[in-house]
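Notes, Module 5: Reading structure tokens.

Key idea: the token line is not a picture. It is a compressed description, and you learn to read it the same way you learned to read a sequence, by spotting repeated patterns. We will look at two proteins. The first is printed below with its tokens.
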Amino acid sequence: MKVLFAESHNLDRPEPLGSHQYIRQFKRDGHECLWLGPLISPLHIFKPDRLNRRRFKIWRQGVHEVDGIDWLIPMSLFIYYNLPLLRSLYAGRSQYRFCLPPLIKQLERAGFEGADLLWCAGPAALGLLNLVPHRLSCYRLADRLEQFRRIPPNVGVLQEELIERAGFVLATSRSLWDWARRVRKEGVFYLPNAVSENFFEPAVSHPADFPDDGRQVAVYVGTINTRFDLETLACGVRRLKDLHFLIIGPVTFEKLKPGLRSLQAESNFTWLGPKAQVEIPAYLQSSKVGIIPFHVNEDTEAVNPLKYYEYLASGLPVVAPPLRELTTMQGPLYPYGSADEFCGALEEAASRREEDKKDLIEFARGHTWENRYRQIMEIVDARLSGGTGGPAHSI
């Protein structure tokens, strides 16, 4: 089977997302895979950062291989962007029609004149439905994108069009499932995030830069963005001196940087910045508690945190606010609703016995990417054979 992934992230992204996990599952299963995207344009010439330099290099190569998977980055003269004219719905629906060289010719040279499965990971893929011949399409719905900065505010219209037109929809949270079901009644499946097998494997060594002051460690791994509740975290850092707080991940919300820098003056706080995904299990397995200090709002109500499964697979009890995804899952959790409760939940989680780890790990084993992939293939096989597929996961 030929599987074409239309994506908005680099294939070699250091912190892999769901689509990265799934394309590798398809590849291991013997399917022919191509990663298409992200789109670049002449506008990106004026943003000569490392990420865009990398994308232009891939575009010039034509097809680049990463771990046995072909990667093609197209350039379009007319892209969907949050600027006058470019933020129009026409741009959002049509950007693949303005590629140089023409996208269809690029796909033909890569051996993808058509696809059995067109995997749409964002609204940019909407224009591919009429452009690329395919037997079946799916839309993995992972975010309400109109809530993101730098994305045109009308992006929800494109998302709803893609929800309606795709062969089936995979919603990563109940909130997104609810939204998709308001758009269409059939072919919407709830399939949350999961964890990689390497998080279950014992770490080879203790990280050299891991805090080593004798205190138990509460760790956060992930992007530090508008979801991140720095105020509540700071309360924990300043009140719980018997715990060391370790933060791993890049900052994408600049307003949080001064607060993080001020916390670095505290003896029980360390911010290491981003780490490669292969390094993360060693940090988690050396810690005592996993934390998800998020605000509770419309944005986070649609979030199914990857880190929740990664913490549990590493044997860590999880402290997090009562996000809809975490509470309705009824998995292991130490919830909190205020800064005081955050501190109390941390103390309770940190006192958990080592022998209780096996329960956390066992729960995580039911939520691996391999399990999710098998559910997807049941849906794909049923739909390619003329059926409708069963529910990927009950709600």
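Here is the second protein, with the sequence above and the tokens below, as before.
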Amino acid sequence: MRLKLYFSLSYFALIALAPWAAAQDALTPLSLEKVTDQVWVAVGETLAPSYDNAGHNNNLSVIIGQEAVVVVNGADNAMLAARLHAAIRLITPLPVTWVINENGQGHAVLGNDYWHRQGARIIAHRDAVTEIERRGASVLAAMQTRNQEKAAGTEVFVPDHQFTDSFNLPIAGLKVQLLHFGEAHSPGDISVWLPDQGVLIAGDIAFSERIPGVFPDTDVTAWLASYEKMAALKPKILIPGHGHPTVEAVVRKTTYDYLQYLWGSSQAVLDAGGGLMAAYEIDQSAYAHYDTFEELAVKNAGRVFQQVEAAYFE
């Protein structure tokens, strides 16, 4: 009885301490990795978003100009945005004047309201803006369920600036170009190009250290074409949407080559007279050592097969 009571009291003590723990997290600056003198990145986990990582499973990048700072991705929630802001203050006193959403996904946009309250302008591709307007409330609700008290203070804020093909951000001392190569992982995917430095913040057009997810509405052939346009820039340093800063040849293996492999394998299944169940059995063992493989591999195979099948019988 005493043991049972002890565990019960311990459980309730942990519950009571949860808000305090979240408050402590909010005071802890994120770790920023230096890429160049002007570019830093808070590298997220290459796993699914969770309560433990507070939704920080994507890259949050920082560009420092002569007079101001640009942030790429608003973060998954207000607390995470505040932690990124605290990290920025450790390396520069300059204000954050622009926040770029690389797409309309929650971990790119749910921190927007925090940055708006700091006086920053928020910009995204028009397709991402449409996605936030359409799904923002449901994405916020899902994040609140996952993050519990860590979601406190988070509200949906739709970007107040948008563009279509490209946009040159007015930042003193730096050329910062926002580029939309076409459809990719999700609606409104964009990349941020610093041509003078050869640094490309690729966003979710490129994945490293984990396999990408193919959504029900992802156009894989368009993604492959967009990737080719992105790679044509020949960046010296590439910051993927997920994974550490690297070079294009590395992310090609886990993104372009992976998607091409699934496409070709799906065509082979159809040529052999197979269907969806056979597609689920496509051998993806060459990619099994990458993160998110268990969660995504079978789903990806099925979704790519359905797109191949649709094209096959047109």
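Summary for the second protein:
- The first strand starts at residue 33 and ends at 34.
- The chain has a mean pLDDT of 92.
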